[in-house]
Amino acid sequence: MSDSGSRVLVVDDTEAHRYVMASWLRRAGYQVTEAATGRDALDAVAGHDAVVLDVNLPDMSGLDVLQVIKADATTAVPVVHVSATSIDARSRTSGLQRGADAYLVEPLDRDEFLATVAGLCRSHAARRGITEHARRLADLTAAVVPLGSARSLDDLVAAAAQGAATVFGAAVVVVATASDGMATRVVSPGPGRTAVRGRLLAPAAEPDAAHPYTWTAQDTPGVWREMLDRAGVPATGWHVTPLLDASGRHLGGFAVATPDGPLGAEDADLAQQLGEALTGAIGTLRSYAQEHHIALTLQRSMLPHSLPTPPGLRMAARYSASDAQLSVGGDFYDALELPDGTVAVVIGDVQGHSLRAATVMAQLRFALHAYLVEGHAPARAVDLLNELLIRSHPELVTVCVAVVDLRDGSMEVVNAGHLPPLLVTADGARYLTGSSPLLGVRLPTERRTTTVPSAGPCTLVLVTDGLLERRSGHLAESLARMAEVVTDAGTLDPGELCDVLLGQFDSAERGDDVAVLAVHLTREKDPPAA
After folding, report:
1. pLDDT, tens only, 204-235
2. What DSSP line would sit under 148-193, residue for residue?
3. What distance lies between CA 60 and its chain's CA centroid?
4. Which residues pair with 80 in a beta bridge?
5. CATH value at residue 172
6. Residue 123 lies in a domain
7. Is the model's pLDDT at 461 over the cut of 90?
8. For 31-40, how does the pLDDT look when each residue is reduced to its tens digit (9 = 90+)?
9. Which stretch of 193-202, 307-316, 375-384, 391-400 has the lowest confidence by average pLDDT?
10. HEC readout, 452-465
11. Which candidate, 5, 25, 125, 140, has a CA 20 to 30 Å from the CA of 287?
């Protein structure tokens, strides 16, 4: 008749009445706590499944105790009011309206009393089960949502492990295999606990398994035991969910610690749902990585395969794609030796991230290359490029062209809306700030050319805005910081300088592609005329 193991609090200031009710309940299999006052009842109510509450108590009204119990979500359990004096309908109605779940009048009938308590305990257990199930589903949703935004396998596996540990309230291991066969593994010892990461070449789960299975503490593979020891997870059993794609190919494994025995049906279902979500996320991430690789290969195929190396000039370039963008972008750089012995270096950025942006970038790069080789001055070459862009494409483009004369070390710089190039000489670092509007609009005046006389050995650095622009912080601050980094780098090789710049500006905050071009002129300054 009872819900075995249910806990009932009996509150009555009359010891004989309390004894009778408690005895009936104990013989029926309940765990009983007794209290003689309202204050004692409120101190003891937490953790009980039902309360039998006398209406008349010595220190406070039973109705007041009832309201306090019901007002707190942690103690809002079913309450049976018991009264020897308030037997009229109005009194009973008042108690029920203020939150009582049942109202019994003494003398009590034993069977009616036990049936009432049993019914209330069952309803409380059902409500608690529904609430717990809803909480678990909410935890599952919270665990699944971050999987869709992960942009690396490491982030995906870590998010899955931490979310699953919260769902199950237990240690969790997640292992996911990349397309190269290398597996990323993460152990979360429990909710909110720091995860332990690692990589392995061993299978993430039983290679023949297509359905969930269990490991005992003795069955746990040795390759798992080392990482479990490092995470402080004691030897225990595991419920393992293999992660398979639609073709049956294993993508990894997801395991939940089972120190109290096998998972129940509800937990096993939650594990299956989380496993399906994780499988889908791994598949999506793999597709993303493959498409990103294709896009990046296409982008780089449109950039120079090598840079010129004339005597007295060393240069290097780097291109770094944004992890936040799947499509190819419009960042570009170029360097070429011109027929008159000068060397032109170019950097630019076509608006947008798409195959079209990359196509426009390639067309403009080759067109500018041709204009410069034909012998046009930098400003005229950029004007011709602008006319081509206006006639052919709606995009806006920024570009900076610097032509270096190796005979005297002078430079001519034309900047069309691009970030200013940084020049570092023995006298310090400065930005060449002369600029004119970007390409894609017609100019009412001639394009400006900045002439830099011979300055001896110097370094010229050109970058696209993806290196410096951040969601937080100002561009001016980033420009100042770049000048410091380049100055501190001293006489680093241009390739090393490019790498230092990419390393100094955190890629985690980078939402755009980046191109960097560093040019080091080694020619000494001309001696003064005699």
Report:
1. 455 556 688 888 888 777 767 777 777 778 88
2. GG--SHHHHHHHHHHHHHHHHTS-EEEEEE-TTSPEEEEEE-STTP
3. 53
4. 52, 102
5. 3.30.450.40
6. yes
7. yes
8. 999 999 989 9
9. 193-202
10. ECCCCCEEEEEECH
11. 140
Q: Which of 511, 425, 430 is nearest to 464 (CA)?
A: 511
Q: How far is CA 84 from the centre of its chain?
A: 62
Looking at the fold, whether 360 and 261 belong to one and the same domain comes out as no
CATH of the domain at 123: 3.40.50.2300
Q: Are 407 and 435 members of one domain?
A: yes
Please give the backbone phi and psi of residue 115, each rounded to the nearest 5 degrees, phi first: -65, -40
Instruction: Identify the H or E element spanning 519.
Output: strand 514-521
**Beta-ladder partners of 11:** 35, 53
CA 329/CA 349 separation, integer angstroms: 8
What residue type is 436 in one-letter code? S
SS (H, E, C) 33-73: EEECCHHHHHHHCCCCCEEEEECCCCCCCHHHHHHHHHHCC
What are the contacts of 382-387 at 24+ separation with CB within 8 A? 382/414, 382/416, 382/439, 382/447, 383/443, 383/447, 385/439, 386/416, 386/439, 386/440, 386/441, 386/442, 386/443
CA–CA separation, 274 and 292 (whole Å): 26
Question: pLDDT at position 280, please?
Answer: 83
pTM for the structure as a whole: 0.55
Beta-carbon count within 10 A of 169 CB = 14
What value does the mean pLDDT of the chain take? Answer: 82
Q: How far apart are the first and last CA of the chain?
A: 117
Whether the Cβ atoms of residue 516 and residue 495 lie closer than 8 Å to each other: no
Clarify whether residues 120 and 239 are in a common domain: no
Q: Check which CATH number belongs to the domain holding 366 and give it.
A: 3.60.40.10
Domain end position, chosen among 111, 140, 169: 140
What is the C-alpha to C-alpha distance for residues 348 and 190, in angstroms, rounded to an integer? 50
Domain span holding position 99: 7-140
Q: At 503, which amino acid appears? A: G
